[in-house]
Design brief:
Length: 230
């Protein structure tokens, strides 16, 4: 039924719910963006120390949870965060090779009527644990998964990467065999472009994403950060 054909009360209720949803999404974005700024600056200036991806995830989750609870302005407002939880899908994930996907961080901001869900995938790539070029492939695999989540009732999806290795940020060039997997600062990806691992024994299957992306990094002291909204 078109909005104009609805009874006045039904139309008003629907408009009110839409406004509530938009406000929830805006507040959730604000929580994630603020948490990202706090995390990156605390890491770069020494306020936090993350030695691996697990500690990176825990630190970010702690900041998100603290901020989220501060955004519970009314008694009905509830912010919830889960680590390493599963999402059921209607299609196979390239990452899990099944119709279930494990999400690094799953956020929910809700009241009595409306709920906004967000998924965040994280990468923490250390120079001393250099898995090149497989790390670059895995980044695009995470982005592919995030696109899937948006088809399954997840409102906001973010990919966040931290590294102490400029290899990912501004390396001059990559091997032709793996150059498709390129997210250096300022690079762009065009929707539906097929990314291939052109080695004798490919690390993974071809990847094609549904959206256009521009990769814009933040360099703070000797660390590099990439935040991508999917």
């Amino acid at each position: 039924m078109k909005l104009c054909a609805m009874p006045d009360r039904t139309r008003r209720n629907l408009i009110y719910r839409q406004m509530q949803k938009e406000n929830q999404i805006k507040l959730t974005e604000e929580i994630i963006e603020t948490a990202y700024r706090l995390l990156t600056h605390k890491l770069a200036f020494g306020g936090l120390t993350s030695r691996n991806e697990s500690s990176f995830q825990l630190e970010f989750g702690h900041i998100l949870k603290t901020l989220g609870q501060l955004y519970e302005f009314r008694l009905a407002d509830k912010f919830h965060l889960e680590f390493e939880t599963y999402i059921s899908l209607n299609e196979t994930s390239i990452k899990s090779k099944s119709n279930r996907a494990r999400v690094d961080l799953l956020l929910s901001y809700q009241d009595d009527n409306i709920s906004t869900k967000s998924a965040i995938e994280l990468k923490f790539l250390k120079k001393e644990n250099h898995r090149e070029p497989n790390n670059r492939y895995d980044v695009f695999k995470d982005i592919s998964n995030l696109e899937l989540y948006k088809k399954h009732d997840i409102d906001l999806c973010y990919f966040i990467l931290a590294t102490d290795h400029s290899h990912y940020f501004d390396r001059t060039s990559y091997s032709m065999d793996t150059s498709d997997f390129d997210f250096r600062n300022g690079k762009e990806y065009k929707a539906k472009t097929v990314l291939q691992y052109k080695t004798d024994k490919p690390y993974g299957k071809d990847i094609s994403l549904n959206q256009n992306y521009t990769f814009r990094w933040d360099k703070i002291n000797d660390l590099y950060f990439l935040k991508l909204k999917v």
